[in-house]
């Protein structure tokens, strides 16, 4: 069955393939966003500031995919730019996830307001009240040992790589 699906996808023309990529992007990003919201509201796992930032990138992917899908049905758009734009929003999501994942792995430090480091001074209470109660360097939830920021990095990077390879394979983008 997988061979049949792959064969059918490979026979699509560029417009059909672009529409399929927009639909898949919309579906995958929606799934990722709804999963995060489910964990927040039904499993009581509140997000940190960087988690919320990553969610905004998925909202951008949803809006881009939906808007371009509607426009492409009405008007002829340069498909190279459509796929390139899609790749750029996915790589942006991947970079945001990588930044957060690196903070969780203690590879680098994050924003001061998002760190669990306490600085004891006369302004300690004021500093604590100005910070998010959820720390970006603490993993709240993981799947097979990888945090959600890590999964966002992996999935977003794979999708942007696939989109870039699609452009290169079609000769629309030079490596």
The SS-based structural class is mainly alpha
Inertia-based shape: elongated
Radius of gyration: 19 Å
Q: What's the total count of β strands?
A: 2
The CATH architecture name reads Up-down Bundle
CATH topology: Bromodomain-like
Main beta sheet strand tally, sense and closure: 2 strands, antiparallel
Numbering strands along the chain, what is their spatial order in the largest sheet?
Answer: 1-2
- How much of the residues is beta strand, in percent? under 5%
DSSP summary: helix tally: 6
CATH class division? Mainly Alpha
Low-confidence stretches: none
Task: Please write the string of helix (H) and strand (E) elements.
Answer: HHHHHEEH
On the 0 to 100 scale, the average pLDDT is 83
Detail the topology: elements first, then pairings.
Blueprint lengths: L1 H9 L3 H29 L6 H26 L4 H26 L19 H7 L11 E2 L2 E2 H22 L6
Antiparallel strand pairs: 1-2
Question: How is this structure best described in words?
Answer:
The chain is mainly α and 175 residues long. The chain has a single domain (13-115, 134-169), classed as Bromodomain-like (Up-down Bundle), CATH 1.20.1550. Helices cover 68% and strands 2% of the residues. The protein has helices at residues 2-10, 14-42, 49-74, 79-104, 124-130, 148-169, and strands spanning 142-143, 146-147. A two-stranded antiparallel sheet has the order 1-2. It is elongated, with a radius of gyration of 19 Å. The mean pLDDT is 83.
């Amino acid at each position: 069955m997988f061979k049949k699906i792959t064969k059918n996808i490979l026979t699509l023309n560029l417009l059909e393939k672009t529409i399929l990529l927009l639909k898949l992007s919309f579906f995958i990003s929606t799934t990722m966003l709804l999963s995060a919201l489910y964990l927040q509201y039904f499993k009581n796992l509140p997000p940190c500031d960087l988690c919320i930032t990553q969610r905004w990138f998925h909202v951008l992917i949803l809006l881009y995919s939906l808007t371009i899908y509607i426009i492409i049905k009405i008007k002829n758009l340069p498909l190279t730019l459509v796929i390139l734009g899609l790749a750029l929003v996915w790589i942006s999501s991947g970079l945001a996830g990588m930044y957060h994942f690196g903070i969780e792995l203690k590879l680098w430090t994050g924003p001061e307001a998002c760190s669990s480091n306490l600085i004891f001074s006369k302004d300690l209470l004021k500093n604590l009240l100005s910070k998010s109660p959820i720390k970006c360097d603490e993993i709240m939830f993981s799947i097979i040992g990888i945090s959600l920021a890590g999964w966002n990095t992996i999935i977003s990077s794979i999708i942007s790589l696939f989109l870039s390879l699609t452009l290169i394979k079609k000769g629309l983008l030079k490596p």
